[in-house]
Specification:
This protein is mainly alpha-helical. 73% of the residues lie in helices and 3% in strands. The protein has a three-stranded mixed sheet.
């Protein structure tokens, strides 16, 4: 990358979450436990879906890919944050910062499309059950997955093209990881257009996707309520889990990028929640609210322990 007439900033310093030792210790313990738990929980979902033939369906295919994405989201920021908690100088290189921004936005874009795909899967399963196997064929699932990665990568690359060669006049980032709003604030030039670009590409796109998802779930919920049956409770339970995950993912994202100029303690709290807590909650929500997944995990556990699988 060319650096002619640009800042010589080769590394950045995170201001972090807090300088209070007691709070740092608490954050270290809680973040470490949640990170390990989220890794184990999401890996368990992926392994269970891959191992149990009963879960070889479009819904669980998408769910296992969502778990893989959650592993990526958590790993992009949490290990560095945990490592830096007790360090006086929380430093990241320029290249490391750009790589972190790239992965955050690429993985975030993939998750948005996957959540849309999961909403479409539930819509077809409940509103058009006779056409489910046709509309949610293996080819359609692969199409959703490829589309998700193409959208995620393009979303990330397009934004990086505009900021990677910015002339920088500072090196302090008021966060515990690199992201576009804080990075842009260090520029030595007028950043109005860049902030508008971030608001449109990340903020308003998140708002649009969020409302599309919520409207689709409302339609599905009304359809379920109209057809009262023994399967209604199971369908509503599954939908409530999906809606919860959507709110947990889009809530902080909309706040970060719709108002990128804001800089408050709430930003850091939501960033911590998004990086550490949400990837832990997703597998908990999908397993505790899903009887089929719990039964599959028991079958896998019995198989690993050497017992015969009970049909």
């Amino acid at each position: 990358m060319k650096r002619v007439n640009h800042s010589v900033t080769l590394e950045f310093v995170f201001l972090g979450l807090t300088n209070l030792w007691d709070i740092q210790l608490l954050l270290f313990l809680v973040s470490s436990m949640l990170y390990v738990a989220s890794m184990l929980g999401n890996c368990l979902i992926i392994f269970t879906v891959a191992s149990d033939p009963h879960l070889h369906s479009p819904m669980y295919f998408l769910l296992s890919n969502l778990s893989f994405i959650d592993i990526g989201i958590s790993s992009a920021t949490s290990p560095k944050m945990i490592y830096d908690l007790f360090k006086k100088n929380k430093i990241i290189s320029f290249k490391g910062c750009i790589i972190q921004i790239f992965f955050i936005h690429a993985i975030g874009g993939v998750e948005m499309v996957l959540l849309i795909a999961m909403a479409f899967d539930r819509y077809v399963a409940i509103c058009k059950p006779l056409h489910y196997l046709t509309l949610m064929s293996p080819q359609m699932c692969i199409f959703f997955l490829i589309t998700a990665w193409v959208v995620g990568l393009m979303h990330s690359v397009i934004q990086l093209v505009f900021i990677v060669n910015l002339p920088l006049c500072g090196h302090l980032l008021d966060n515990f990881y690199c992201d576009l709003p804080q990075f842009i604030k260090l520029a030595c030039t007028d950043t109005y257009r860049l902030e508008l670009m971030v608001s449109i590409s990340s903020g308003f796109m998140s708002v649009a996707f969020f409302f599309i998802l919520i409207i689709s779930y409302i339609i599905v919920i009304f359809t379920v309520l109209k057809h009262s049956s023994s399967g209604s409770y199971k369908a509503l339970s599954t939908l409530s889990a999906h809606v919860t995950v959507v709110v947990l993912f889009f809530g902080p994202t909309i706040f970060f990028y719709t108002w990128p100029s804001s800089s408050t303690h709430l930003d850091k709290f939501l960033a911590l929640f998004d990086a550490v807590v949400t990837p832990f909650l997703n597998p908990v929500i999908y397993t505790l609210r899903n009887q089929e997944m719990k039964l599959a995990m028991r079958r896998v556990f019995r198989h690993l322990m050497g017992y015969r699988q009970i049909s």
